[in-house]
């Protein structure tokens, strides 16, 4: 009995160990694939006048995960697939688009039905008005008699209102004259007070100007000292060493990210042929420094710019992490941080 229990426990432990080893191997396999399998990118675009088109794709692990997008007429649709199954935009967006189309169709039908109903109601109202024409005529005659008496009363009331308005205007004119006299006296007194305060204002402005000049001179003196400190920091050994490390790693990163296939076909032209020649010289210098060989066709007769571009390359996550870790843990960065903190405290 005891040995059977030990055998069962041993089998359970072995199965647990097998599961743990399987999970460990799976994690190692996934991390290895993520780190060492490159992400491939492919991009192509064209520009011909107002016609702008672009198309790109990024894939990983033989298109196990792929993201593709387009740009045409100001729209950028995209598709994300995993193992050939479309994940984004997904079925939810498609359902929403269908519902939107169905709602638009229903609204169009409702508009047609409302127009028909309005036409039928208008016809019925015209018939009812013809039938009730005689009765309405009699009612209108009685109403006109009553309105004649009311108009006489309204004329009397209008005459009284006009008299009241004239009286109110006279009273308002008198009040305005009294107010203007009071305002004149107040303005005269305030102007006299202002003239008495002019010498004080002049003295205060002189004081402010002198204080501002003193502050400017003090800022210039302190600015000179700060400028000397900043110059020493920029041209110091710590800063220059860190710049050299960053430059070397950026060049290493560019050599890794640089497209394996780069095809550029351009047609360039300006109104002035001399400007076209100068631009061609700048492009040649830049492409020679970057190691790019585009196909540039100059047009010395008219102003034009057209281009077609195609880029293909790959990026490995392991190389990117290696460069970042190398820069982050280098001694030059630590010394640069120390000198930067010291100068920041002084400034």
From TrEMBL:
Residues 100-118 have a biased composition (Basic residues). It comes from the Bacteria. InterPro entries: DUF2953. Residues 93-129 are annotated as: Disordered. Keywords: Membrane, Transmembrane, Transmembrane helix. Pfam families: DUF2953. The keyword Transmembrane helix applies. The chain crosses the membrane at residues 12-37. This is DUF2953 domain-containing protein. It comes from Butyribacter intestini. The lineage of its organism: Bacteria, Bacillati, Bacillota, Clostridia, Lachnospirales.
């Amino acid at each position: 009995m005891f040995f059977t229990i030990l055998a069962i426990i041993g089998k359970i432990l072995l199965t647990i160990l097998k599961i743990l080893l399987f999970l460990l191997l799976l994690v190692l396999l996934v991390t290895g694939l993520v780190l060492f399998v490159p992400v491939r990118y492919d991009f192509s675009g064209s520009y011909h006048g107002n016609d702008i088109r672009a198309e790109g794709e990024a894939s990983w692990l033989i298109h196990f995960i792929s993201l593709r997008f387009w740009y045409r007429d100001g729209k950028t649709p995209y598709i994300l697939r995993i193992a050939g199954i479309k994940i984004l935009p997904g079925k939810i967006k498609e359902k929403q688009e269908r519902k939107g189309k169905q709602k638009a169709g229903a609204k169009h039908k409702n508009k047609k039905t409302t127009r028909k109903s309005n036409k039928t109601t208008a016809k019925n109202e015209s018939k009812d008005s013809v039938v009730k024409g005689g009765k309405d005529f009699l009612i209108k005659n009685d109403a006109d008699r009553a309105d004649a008496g009311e108009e006489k009363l309204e004329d009397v009331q209008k005459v009284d209102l006009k008299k009241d308005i004239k009286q109110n205007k006279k009273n308002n004119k008198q009040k305005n004259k009294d107010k203007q006299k009071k305002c004149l006296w107040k303005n005269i007194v305030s102007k006299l007070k202002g003239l008495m305060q002019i010498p004080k204002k002049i003295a205060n402005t002189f004081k402010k100007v002198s204080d501002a000049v003193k502050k400017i001179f003090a800022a210039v003196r302190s600015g000179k000292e700060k400028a000397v400190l900043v110059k020493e920091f920029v041209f110091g050994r710590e800063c220059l060493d860190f710049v050299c490390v960053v430059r070397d790693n950026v060049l290493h990163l560019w050599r890794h990210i640089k497209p394996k296939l780069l095809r550029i076909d351009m047609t360039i032209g300006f109104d002035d042929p001399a400007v076209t020649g100068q631009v061609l010289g700048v492009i040649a210098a830049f492409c020679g420094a970057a190691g790019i060989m585009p196909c540039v066709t100059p047009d010395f007769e008219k102003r034009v710019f057209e281009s077609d571009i195609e880029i293909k390359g790959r990026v490995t996550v392991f190389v990117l992490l290696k460069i970042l870790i190398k820069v982050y843990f280098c001694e030059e960065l630590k010394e640069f941080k120390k000198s930067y903190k010291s100068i920041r405290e002084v400034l």
